[in-house]
Amino acid sequence: MTQIITFFEDNSLKYFHPLTLTRPIYDLRIGILSLSEKWLHAFDQDTPPCGLQRDNLKDLFAQPSSIESGKNSYWINPRVFPNETLIEEINGLPLNYRLINNETLIATNLSADNHNSWITNGMEISGLKEKKYSGPIEKLDKAWEIFKYNGREIVRDLERIKNLKLVEKSEYQNVTFFDKHPIYLEAGVTLEPGVILYANDGPIYVGKGARIMANSVIRGPSAICRDSVVKMGAKIDKETTIGPVCKVGGEISNVVFHSYSNKSHDGFTGNSVFGQWCNLGADTNTSNLKNNYSTVRIQDWESGETTDTGEQFLGTIMGDHSKTGINAMLNTGTVCGVCCNLFSTGYQPKHVPSFSWVGQDNVVPYHFEKAVEAMEKMMQRRDIKLSPAYKNLMRTIFESSAQQ
Known about the structure:
This protein is α/β, with parallel strands linked by helices.
């Protein structure tokens, strides 16, 4: 029987901004799959994900439906990674119980009455009985952990995805394979002459319709998702995910691109996370290591306070629809909001509010209608129309940024 799965967000949401200004946490990509896809695979489901959405996301992402009396539903915290022990624990959870690990709510098993009430009135866990979970658990707590755990999740996602096809070396002329670990190619992949797929350190996944252009090198564990293009001579280092419908070139190391984003030209980016519809201009470079080798500090998105991440390598976290000009320099620990335009000739600011236009020593608001015009043009290039609901979401983010 198909289980009813609903995803929820907890108080850690703010630690994933600006990436989650435009999407629910469950839509974050790490490894090959999004967080929701990992859970749906774990429950052997192919249904679209749904969750209790924030007001400005309700018209863009699916809301849960009410269920009939006698049925139950699992509500899942997508920050927690599924594993076999945890799935067994959730499947055995009594009706109207919540599963807790320390202070983290992992999941609930709700009756139809509670499920329908939560949809209408919001989550109310006080009436649920509690069961403590002390088994193995791994979860995301901060945005930069997306790249930190990305290599591990590529390997695990390859175990979750069924019917993967190993590369048939004989089908590709003048391509070099090093395959101590598996290399998986989906249907319609193009590998041009001179490509090197180096899987001796970890597996490589190339999704449907992807094109790896001549003389590119990809080192595993890495994932190139569906319909993406790796440009000529690119160097894709390990623990990197190029999300669907992206174009990338230059040198990339331990980076996650969500989808529809471009870094087509030379330049380095490392230990970073980019949202959708980002574009890095030619020779954009991301610093991911401080000159004194100390741990990287970043500015908290909401409070503005500077936080020591404890990480020695941390490049850029960039929200959707943000762009850099040619020769842009992104400092170590840069956090850039949604719909920003960075073209200063020096280092860009380390904290860039959403809808910012960053010129030479000058940060001014990006006019909303001008920003939307640029969005529409970029999305049209991929045959996607900017919907009224998406425009309303962007207006909400714009107005919120103006009040800061």
